[in-house]
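Page 37, continued from 36.
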C-alpha cells in the first residue's frame, strides 16, 4: 500500500515550479542511514543555469573540485584521488556534461562547461509517507531525526488516515501533516510545517536507545554539501520507476507502472519478475518518463544549449 500511496502522491505533487523525487539518502555522516520517501525541490534564482548544464545528476566530486570554466586543470590535480579513480570521476562528469576533457603537455586536463550556480536550490521539503497511522513503525524516531538535523527546509508527514489530536501530539511540532487520498489525488493540509534552519548547525541522531543516544554535531557547511547532493540526485532521478519487462506491463497516463493482468499499479522491484506466476518476459513498455517530467515539472529534458556533450571536443587546450 505504501508504494502505491507514494507514487500517487508524487504524481499529485508534480507542478511546473518544482521537481519531485523519491527514496533519497538524507543522512550526513551516514547518508544511507536515513532515506526520505519523497523530496520536493523548489527552484532558486540559479535554477535555469543549472538546468542548462544537463538533465542528469552532476557528480558531487566534480562540483566540489577546484575546477571551473576559466582554465583547464590536470585531472590528477583536480581530484585528490589515485590516478585511475581521478580519471573515472572526471569521465563521469564529462559524461554528465559538466566537465570537458582535453590534452595539454601530454596530460589529460579538464574544465567545466559552465559555472555551477550556487543558488539553484530554492528549498527542499522532505515528506515521510505513513498511509496508515495505526501501524506507525519507527515514524516518530524518523521525524525526530529530521527535525533535529534540520537538513531540509521543512518536513511533512503524509497519511491516508484520519488524523486525531493524539496522532498530532505524538509527532514533533515542526512537522507538517497532510491527509492524502491516493484514489482521488486530493490533499488536505491538516497542519503546515514550521520552517527548519538548514543554514544553522544541526544534530544528527546516530543511534537512539532507552539509556543512551549517540549524536553527531553537523556544521552548516556539511549540511550545504549534503543538500546539494540531495538536490542533484533529485534533479537527475525524478520519481518514476522503470516499468517491468513483462508482456502485461503498461504505464498509467501519469507514468506509474501498471499491470494489465492484475489490474493495478505495481512495484516492479517487488511484484514482478520470477516471483510472479503471471510474468511473461518482454521488453518494458515505453514509460514516457522524460516527456512527462519535462511537461509536468521544472525539470528540463533538453537544455537549449543541446544538453550533455554540447561543447565536447570544441575546445583546444593550449
Ligand atoms: S510480472 Fe506479474 S505483476 Fe509484473 S507486470 Fe507481469 S504479470 Fe503483472
Amino acid at each position: 500500500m505504501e508504494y502505491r500511496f507514494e507514487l500517487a502522491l508524487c504524481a499529485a505533487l508534480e507542478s511546473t515550479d518544482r521537481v519531485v523525487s523519491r527514496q533519497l539518502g538524507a543522512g550526513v555522516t551516514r547518508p544511507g542511514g536515513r532515506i526520505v520517501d519523497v523530496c520536493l525541490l523548489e527552484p532558486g534564482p540559479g535554477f535555469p543555469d543549472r538546468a542548462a548544464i544537463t538533465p542528469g545528476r552532476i557528480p558531487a566530486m566534480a562540483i566540489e573540485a577546484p575546477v571551473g570554466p576559466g582554465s583547464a586543470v590536470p585531472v590528477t590535480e583536480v581530484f585528490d584521488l589515485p590516478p585511475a579513480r581521478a580519471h573515472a570521476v572526471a569521465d563521469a562528469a564529462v559524461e554528465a556534461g559538466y566537465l570537458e576533457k582535453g590534452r595539454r603537455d601530454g596530460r589529460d586536463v579538464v574544465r567545466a562547461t559552465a559555472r555551477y550556480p550556487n543558488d539553484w536550490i530554492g528549498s527542499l521539503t522532505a515528506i515521510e509517507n505513513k498511509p496508515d497511522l495505526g501501524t506507525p513503525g519507527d515514524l516518530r524516531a524518523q521525524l525526530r531525526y529530521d527535525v533535529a538535523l534540520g537538513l531540509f527546509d521543512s518536513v511533512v508527514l503524509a497519511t491516508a488516515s484520519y488524523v486525531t489530536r493524539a496522532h498530532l501530539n505524538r509527532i514533533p511540532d515542526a512537522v507538517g501533516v497532510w491527509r492524502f487520498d491516493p484514489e482521488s489525488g486530493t490533499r488536505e493540509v491538516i497542519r503546515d510545517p514550521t520552517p527548519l534552519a538548514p543554514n544553522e548547525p544541526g544534530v544528527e541522531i546516530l543511534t537512539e536507545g532507552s539509556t543512551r543516544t549517540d549524536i553527531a554535531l553537523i556544521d552548516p557547511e556539511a549540511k550545504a554539501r549534503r543538500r546539494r547532493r540531495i538536490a542533484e540526485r533529485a534533479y537527475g532521478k525524478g520519481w518514476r520507476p522503470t516499468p517491468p519487462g513483462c508482456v502485461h506491463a503498461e504505464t498509467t497516463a501519469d507514468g506509474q507502472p501498471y499491470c494489465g493482468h492484475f489490474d493495478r499499479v505495481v512495484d516492479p522491484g517487488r511484484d514482478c519478475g520470477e516471483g510472479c506466476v503471471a510474468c511473461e518476459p518482454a521488453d518494458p513498455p515505453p514509460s514516457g518518463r522524460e516527456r512527462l517530467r519535462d511537461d509536468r515539472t521544472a525539470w528540463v529534458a533538453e537544455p537549449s544549449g543541446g544538453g550533455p556533450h554540447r561543447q565536447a571536443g570544441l575546445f583546444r587546450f593550449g
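Residues 244, 246, 248-249, 259, 261-262, 266, 271-272, 276, 278-279 surround iron/sulfur cluster (CB under 6 Å). Flag for discussion at group meeting. The first strand starts at residue 19 and ends at 25.
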